[in-house]
Structure formats: structure tokens, C-alpha cells
């Protein structure tokens, strides 16, 4: 069986956050579960920048639930630090949206990397096995094969 090709694109968005007190543990470092929230911040910034936000998808009668996520912690982020979240769209011929993430601290060091996979479900919760037409059109507009 031939494996489907997936490849990083040049479509990237960066979003900056400042670590808030309520995102840290008693040691003053970001609690590990908050990095997934930071990934969402990056994904939302990507959606706004490239016209494929959750609201845009919803207008076409679909939602994109996450079915897989991974997160690798490299360095800690601390209360008050600035961090940059970079979200990159990974192209796939399958009916899904894949994003890779890189979070860097103020010094530019990578503190966390990860990936999420989202699928398309219609308003009735039915999984789409093919790319919805609006998504195919978006990929054409973005010049993605």
C-alpha cells in the first residue's frame, strides 16, 4: 500500500503571548497542559491570517475536531516571559488539517514543538472522508497541491 504524501508548506503564522500567572504551576513555570492551548492560539492566528478560521469552516457547515496531538517539551517557559508560537500548515491529500508548532522563548530558543491533526465533520457530526469543496478551493487559492 502506498503511503500518502504529507509536506510542510510555506504557510505559517506567528502569534506572541506573554505567560500569565494562571498558566504556571507553584514553581512559576508553565504547566505542561497549557502548551496545547498555546498551539490553539497559533492555529487561530493562522486561521485569521489565511482565511480558514474556525468561524470560516463553520460557515461552510463543518467543524474540525482534533483527533491527534503531540507535544515535546524542550525548555520551560516562566511567568511573565514572552513566547512566539509558530503554526505551520502541513499539506496532506487526506481529508484533514495538520499543523506543526514551534514555541520559542524571548531568547529565540525552542521550548516546545508539536503537531495536531484535525478532521472534518459536518453539522450532524458525520466524518467527511473526502476534502470538503470549500477546503479544496482554499488549498487552490493558497497554491497548495
Instruction: Note the overall shape.
Output: elongated
Average pLDDT for all residues? 94
* Succession of helices and strands: EHHEEEEEEH
Main beta sheet: strand number and arrangement? 5 strands, antiparallel
Radius of gyration: 16 Å
**Overall helicity:** 10-25%
Tell me the number of strands: 7
Distance between the ends: 21 Å
| Count of alpha/pi helices | 3
Strand order of the largest sheet: 1-4-5-6-3
Structure summarized in a few sentences:
The chain has 145 residues and is an alpha+beta fold. Helix content is 22%, strand content 37%. It has helices at 34-50, 54-59, 133-141, and strands at 7-18, 62-63, 66-73, 82-91, 96-104, 110-119, 121-122.
Structural write-up:
The protein is an alpha+beta fold and 145 residues long. The chain has helices at residues 34-50, 54-59, 133-141; strands at residues 7-18, 62-63, 66-73, 82-91, 96-104, 110-119, 121-122. The strands form two sheets. The protein has a five-stranded antiparallel sheet, covered by helices on one side. A two-stranded antiparallel sheet has the order 2-7. The longest helix is centred in the N-terminal third of the chain and has 17 residues, at 34-50. The mean pLDDT is 94.
Amino acid at each position: 500500500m502506498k503511503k500518502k504524501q504529507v509536506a510542510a508548506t510555506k504557510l505559517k503564522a506567528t502569534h506572541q503571548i506573554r505567560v500569565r500567572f494562571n498558566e504556571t504551576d507553584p514553581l512559576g513555570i508553565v504547566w505542561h497542559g497549557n502548551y496545547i492551548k498555546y498551539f490553539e492560539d497559533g492555529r487561530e492566528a493562522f486561521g485569521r491570517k489565511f482565511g480558514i478560521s474556525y468561524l470560516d469552516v463553520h460557515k461552510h457547515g463543518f467543524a474540525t475536531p482534533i483527533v491527534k496531538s503531540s507535544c515535546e517539551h524542550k525548555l520551560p517557559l516562566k511567568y511573565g516571559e514572552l513566547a512566539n508560537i509558530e503554526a505551520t500548515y502541513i499539506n496532506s491529500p487526506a481529508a484533514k488539517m495538520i499543523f506543526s508548532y514551534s514555541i520559542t522563548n524571548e531568547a529565540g530558543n525552542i521550548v516546545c514543538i508539536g503537531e495536531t491533526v484535525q478532521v472534518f465533520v459536518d453539522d450532524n457530526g458525520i466524518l467527511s472522508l473526502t476534502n470538503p469543496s470549500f477546503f479544496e478551493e482554499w488549498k487552490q487559492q493558497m497554491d497548495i497541491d
